[in-house]
Amino acid sequence: MGVIFNDDFRDFIQALNNHNVEYILVGGYAVILHGYRRVTGDMDIWVNRTKENYLKLAEAFMEFGLWERQ
């Protein structure tokens, strides 16, 4: 199948997993992972909408470098 994720997408997914974020991958990458050919330039995720999960998501964003703790 070759390389599916570019480095940034792979690192972001790793940050989500490192912080136990409850999420699912949807959209183009989900289609690709199911074996269909598809070109996409973005990543679509859905996250479980709980306060605890949003806090985990914020930690993952910080690990990925999207913002710093204030």
From TrEMBL:
Question: What SUPFAM superfamilies does UniProt report for this protein, alphabetically?
Answer: Nucleotidyltransferase
Q: Which InterPro entries match?
A: NT_sf
This protein's name: Nucleotidyl transferase AbiEii toxin, Type IV TA system
- Identify the species of origin: Chitinophaga jiangningensis
